[in-house]
Design brief:
- This protein is α/β, with parallel strands linked by helices and 398 residues long.
- It has 18 helices and 11 strands.
- Strands 1-2-3-4-5-6-7-8-11 form a 9-stranded mixed β-sheet, sandwiched between helices. The chain has a two-stranded antiparallel ribbon with strand order 9-10.
- Helix 17 runs antiparallel to helix 18.
């Protein structure tokens, strides 16, 4: 089984003229779009472009390469290697890169970045960056649960319309993580003439939308164009509701680490697919989504704002900064929690208790679990029953 690195090494010599743009190419460019090109390209300029090979060379030889290549806690540190290999490959070296833009706005609680790749004179690929290492980026992710439209979604629509007005040919749109959400949202909400030019929308493990939003005419029109890919233990991508065609991808990682595209298995120019999601992933997301729906807007807002305000006391702007001085920051966070007004603290604790109660109600009984898993072998079943009994006991204690 290969990965995106293997793909670049095995198939990098095959030009797009011999084998057309595919889902693996889409994921590779999503990953490259996590890199910091600030100062290396004109911000938001579609009038200028640079070959991917040239951009890779400038990036790899930049004086601050180590800083640019440090992706933080959650983005794979091998991302700069993907750019390097792509830049040297026959397949990607002549792809034109344009329209790079990056916004971090603390006052608007926005983290947004997009890059456009001109694959050929007739094919353009607009890519939205997912959540990066910034704390404000995670805050905006939480805001997806409580706001009809977050700032990044609004900017994603404007960016796609600007890209369409500047480029010729058909348009593909995509993104990984929050970038997948932005890709679907922007494609749904752009003007009709732009929407007609969109051929495919690649959603790589991106969170979904409310049922009300998905039921709108704007979203209904793009459903046939959506191609969603999720690892078999998907957490991020299974939040909220989804529409359109989806596939479950095999991953070599476990748990939440399957969100990392470097762990996704592929064969040739296709992902290695599974029949369905991991059972534990399905259970977790069923509980999480039911919990989110059970909360009022006021409860959701209070919960999110309280957690964010506590993180702010560390004065860190990124998750890596919190981790780099974890002991000191832990004390700050605990102190801030203790100083939180009692009524707010109680409300947050009650919200968490509600999550545990829902988890307990959704959990199958040991007998149900046993009957469902009889085909897996008696030793494995007994082991699972034992685990479920212990988990049931812990949740009951809460």
């Amino acid at each position: 089984m290969g990965t995106i690195i293997d793909y670049l090494e095995w198939r990098g010599d095959i030009p797009f003229s011999a084998s057309g743009f595919n889902e693996i190419d889409a994921l590779i460019l999503c990953q490259i779009s996590y890199l910091n090109f600030d100062g290396l390209m004109d911000d938001g300029n579609f009038l200028k472009s640079v070959k991917l090979s040239e951009l890779a060379d400038v990036f790899m030889n930049s004086p601050d390469f180590e800083t640019r290549a440090n992706m933080g806690m959650l983005i794979n540190q091998e991302t700069s290697k993907v750019l390097e290999l792509a830049g040297k490959s026959e397949r990607f070296k002549n792809v034109l890169v344009t329209g790079y833009t990056s916004i971090i706005d603390l006052s608007k609680e926005e983290q947004f970045s997009a890059t456009t790749y001109i694959i050929s004179p007739k094919i353009n690929y607009v890519v939205y960056r997912g959540t990066d290492d910034t704390i404000v980026g995670f805050k905006e992710d939480f805001n997806l649960a409580i706001m009809d439209e977050v700032p990044a979604q609004n900017d994603a629509v404007r960016y796609l319309e600007l890209a369409a007005s500047s480029l010729k040919g058909e348009i593909y749109v995509g993104g990984h993580s929050k970038g997948g959400n932005l890709a679907v949202y922007a494609s749904a909400m752009v003007k009709a003439d732009v929407k007609k030019r969109i051929s495919l929308i690649y959603n790589m493990d991106g969170p979904g939308f409310s049922e009300k939003r998905l039921a709108s005419q704007e979203f209904y029109e793009i459903i046939p164009k959506i191609r969603s890919f999720y690892p078999h233990f998907s957490i991020v991508g299974m939040i909220f509701n989804h529409a359109g065609e989806y596939s479950v991808v095999e991953s070599e990682q476990t748990g939440i680490m399957q969100h990392d595209p470097f762990s996704w298995h592929l064969s040739g120019n296709k992902f290695v697919l599974l029949d369905d999601f991991d059972e534990a992933s399905s259970f977790f997301n069923k509980v999480l989504n039911k919990w989110l729906l059970s909360l009022s807007k006021e409860q959701q807002t209070q919960f999110i704002e309280t957690l964010y305000n506590i993180l702010e006391v560390t004065d860190a702007r990124t998750n890596s900064e919190i981790e780099s001085n974890l002991l000191k920051n832990s004390f700050k966070i605990l102190k801030a929690w203790k100083e939180t007004p009692p009524d707010i603290r109680d409300a947050v604790e009650n919200t968490l208790r509600q999550l545990f109660k829902i988890a307990h109600r959704q959990l199958p009984s040991p007998q149900e679990w046993f009957e469902k898993n009889t085909k897996r072998g008696i030793h494995k079943v007994k082991e699972n029953v034992s685990i479920m009994q212990k988990f049931n006991g812990k949740l009951s204690a809460k």
